[in-house]
Amino acid sequence: MTASTSPPVRPPIGAFKPYYRDADLTAEEQQIVDRFHDLYYSKLDGGVGLHTIVLAWMGHEMFKCPMDLWLYQELIVLRRPNLIIETGTYKGGSALYLACICDMVGEGSVVTVDIDDTHRAIQPQHPRLRYVSGSSTAPEIFAQVAAQAAAAGPEVMVILDSDHRRDHVLDELRLYSELVPVGGLLVVEDTNVNGHPTYPEFGPGPWEAVDAFLAENPRFVADRSFERFLLTMNPRGVLRRVE
Question: How is the chain split into domains, by residue range?
Fold first, then answer.
């Protein structure tokens, strides 16, 4: 077999499982975390332009906290999802990251949905990655994604990162929660805005959508053990299906 046709060498998957538990911070410790969180987020731009959450994966741009990306890597290795559904594609950097981690573990694929095709020409291609154009809450788009989930296998993980207005996120939660199996995870990104603890002027957003969803759906709980890195853009945003 020549070098050009050799299969990619995947890293060995070890047996170590990270330990997850609630941070149990004191009020003073939580205040420190919140103040740093607000500082970190506010330096994104605001005339300073440190671009703290503007990251590159293999030369492709995304808006993510590095600690959240590390958690996604751990969760993919632990849960081995057959399909990861992402709403909110942007330039495709985060979808490529997820597809690459799936590739390294040797299973799983990614479908990413966005209504905006502005960046289609530069979105990366990967054999484990599929793009869907349209609103994540449109019946025909959800039907496409649900069909892919049914064909992929039982372990589905969902990441909501599209329009962050409360009502849109709540509509997504009601739809995509149906695709998550018992024990599975649904991640609502950017629950930190509207003063939780940053960007207070945003208005009702993902955090408020989670409030409303959990109040009407006892099958899910917010699992804060996944916040052990302390800094996350998704506080109380990792929802686990318990029944």
Answer: 28-241
